[in-house]
Amino acid sequence: MPKMKKNKAREKRIDMEIVVDAHDEDERAMGWFYYLEDKLQFPFKAQVIAKRLTSPLAKGETVQVEDLALGDECEYEMFVEITWQSRKLAIPLSQLKPIKVDSETREAIEDWHYWVSQGYEF
């Protein structure tokens, strides 16, 4: 994901709402998990915006996002659940662009994309 221009409002939201009291990578991952769990409204449609070795999805494909993946799946990156070829898969949220979602869902996904594009880690 290409690096996005610094966004002071987004940086402040991430620092003050998402990773506010996080002292290590586990706490930052938990902060992101709970933030996304609270903000994302499921189900929603999304378009694949990037090919990933960890995912069988093709760029441009449309998927139905059903839920946030279980906490263990989100220890190092945020994953969401989809149904693909009759089975559930957890795919990286950074691989998806939401289609016709509410403003809270869009903002939360954009926050995650921003975090990833800046090279920040848990």
Quick structural overview:
With 122 residues, this protein is of the alpha+beta class. The protein has three helices and five strands; from the N terminus they run ααβββββα. α2 runs antiparallel to α3 (103-117).
Low-confidence stretches: none
What letter string, H or E per element, gives the SSE order? HHEEEEEH
Mean pLDDT score, rounded?
93
**Radius of gyration, rounded?**
14 Å
Strand adjacency order, main sheet:
4-3-2-1-5
Helix content: 25-40%
Number of helices: 3
Strand portion: 15-25%
For the terminal residues, how far apart are their CA atoms?
Answer: 17 Å
- CA-based shape: globular
Number of strands: 5
Main sheet properties:
5 strands, antiparallel
Estimated structural class: alpha+beta
Task: Give a written overview of the molecule.
This protein has helices at residues 8-18, 25-39, 103-117; strands at 44-48, 62-68, 79-84, 87-92, 96-99. It is of the alpha+beta class and 122 residues long. Strands 4-3-2-1-5 form a five-stranded antiparallel beta sheet. Strand 3 and strand 4 (87-92) form a beta hairpin. The longest helix is centred in the N-terminal third of the chain and has 15 residues, at 25-39.
Q: How does the SSE layout of this entry go?
A:
Elements (H helix, E strand, L loop, with lengths): L7 H11 L6 H15 L4 E5 L13 E7 L10 E6 L2 E6 L3 E4 L3 H15 L5
Antiparallel strand pairs: 1-2, 1-5, 2-3, 3-4
